[in-house]
């Protein structure tokens, strides 16, 4: 008859064996779950920056594979995951407008409600991490917009595209089968630029703050946007340029930067049809001396002589 000691020893071995088996089973199960076999609808991603705003989309990409998509794989009038596997996610690094409606920065699950006729519904849901659309809750929707689908060349594998349109706008498209479903994204580029300029000015060495204002103003003038802000920055730069007590050799030559400022001020004045003052600033820019001046370096690229001639003609026409 076995002693209590032998029983205890046998039970210990049994428990250890069962524990090892459970651990092995758990390990194998985990390996099975993480997908030793590749998914039939592989995970895909697309990233694009529009202005200062980053947009990233993560999605599963199913194939058509001779199946009926719309109304079947993606039923009409029901919330669809807009991809495969996990819910499709879309992330914005800054606040944006979607089809004219505001959406706060963050990561969202992206769903679609296909329609047999008319506009389809696009859903941006606050619960980004979820499996498909099975647990979608309407009360968690941050935004819903409606757009009309378009026909497109055949797309066998579902695909997302992000197309920049200038510095402030972009278009996001879902393509699958013969359908292209697009929505427009508008970023707050100008307000972000203003915040960035002031942030850089606050951190910059006192002697080069005027350079930050010059670069910010140049962008606005090139884009013909918010010229009032550009004028304010140019005035700040011009005031600061007169109070610089030193200039470090590692920066561009002061004659070049000052010439850049005068030329931007000339362009700003010309945009307001103040041609006499524009020409005056242009001549001040040309008169600056040094081995490396703005006029000497940028005349051809900026068409400086040609523009000054045009402004002179415009001035004479007004007189």
Description:
- This protein has 319 residues and is an alpha+beta fold.
- It has three domains: 1-37; 43-187, no CATH class; 190-318.
- Helices cover 41% and strands 26% of the residues.
- The protein is built from eight helices and ten strands.
- It has helices at residues 4-33, 189-203, 209-223, 227-241, 254-271, 275-287, 294-302, 304-318; strands at 43-50, 53-60, 89-92, 96-98, 101-103, 106-113, 120-125, 141-147, 150-165, 169-187.
- Strands 1-2-3-6-7-8 form a six-stranded antiparallel β-sheet, with no helix packed on it.
- Helix 2 runs antiparallel to helix 3 and helix 4 packs antiparallel against helix 5 (254-271).
- The longest helix has 30 residues, at 4-33.
Topology (elements, then pairings):
Blueprint: H1 4-33, E1 43-50, E2 53-60, E3 89-92, E4 96-98, E5 101-103, E6 106-113, E7 120-125, E8 141-147, E9 150-165, E10 169-187, H2 189-203, H3 209-223, H4 227-241, H5 254-271, H6 275-287, H7 294-302, H8 304-318
Antiparallel strand pairs: 1-2, 2-3, 3-6, 4-5, 4-10, 6-7, 7-8, 9-10
Helix pairs in contact: 2-3, 3-4, 3-5, 4-5, 5-6, 6-8
Give me some keywords for this one.
4-stranded antiparallel β-sheet; 10 strands; alpha+beta; 6-stranded antiparallel β-sheet; 26% strand
Write a concise synopsis of the structure shown:
This protein has 319 residues and is an alpha+beta fold. It has helices at 4-33, 189-203, 209-223, 227-241, 254-271, 275-287, 294-302, 304-318, and strands at residues 43-50, 53-60, 89-92, 96-98, 101-103, 106-113, 120-125, 141-147, 150-165, 169-187.
């Amino acid at each position: 008859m076995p002693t209590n000691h032998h029983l205890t020893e046998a039970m210990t071995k049994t428990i250890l064996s069962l524990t090892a088996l459970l651990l092995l089973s758990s390990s194998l199960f985990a390996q099975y779950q993480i997908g030793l076999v590749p998914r039939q609808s592989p995970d895909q991603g697309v990233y694009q920056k529009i202005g200062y705003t980053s947009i990233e989309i993560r999605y599963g990409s199913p194939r058509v594979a001779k199946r009926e998509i719309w109304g079947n794989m993606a039923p009409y009038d029901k919330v669809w995951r807009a991809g495969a596997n996990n819910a499709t996610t879309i992330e914005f690094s800054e606040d944006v407008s979607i089809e004219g409606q505001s959406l706060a920065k963050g990561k969202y699950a992206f769903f679609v409600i296909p329609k047999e006729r008319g506009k389809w519904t696009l859903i941006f849901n606050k619960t980004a991490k979820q499996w498909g659309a099975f647990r979608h809750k309407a009360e968690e929707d941050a935004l819903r917009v409606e757009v009309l689908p378009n026909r497109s060349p055949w797309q066998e594998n579902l695909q997302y595209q992000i197309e920049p349109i200038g510095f402030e706008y972009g278009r996001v498209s879902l393509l699958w089968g013969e359908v292209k479903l697009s929505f427009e994204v508008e970023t707050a580029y100008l307000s972000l630029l203003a915040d960035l300029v002031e942030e850089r000015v606050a951190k910059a060495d006192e002697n080069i703050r005027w350079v930050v204002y010059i670069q910010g103003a140049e962008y606005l003038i090139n884009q013909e946007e918010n010229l009032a802000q550009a004028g304010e920055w140019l005035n700040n730069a011009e005031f600061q340029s007169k109070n610089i007590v030193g200039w470090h050799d590692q920066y561009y030559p002061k004659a070049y930067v000052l010439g850049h400022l005068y030329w931007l001020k000339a362009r700003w004045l010309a945009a307001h049809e103040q041609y006499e003052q524009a020409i005056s600033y242009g001549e001040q820019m040309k008169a600056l001396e040094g081995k490396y001046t703005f006029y000497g370096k940028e005349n051809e690229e900026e068409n400086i002589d040609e523009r000054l001639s045009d402004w002179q003609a415009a001035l004479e026409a007004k007189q």
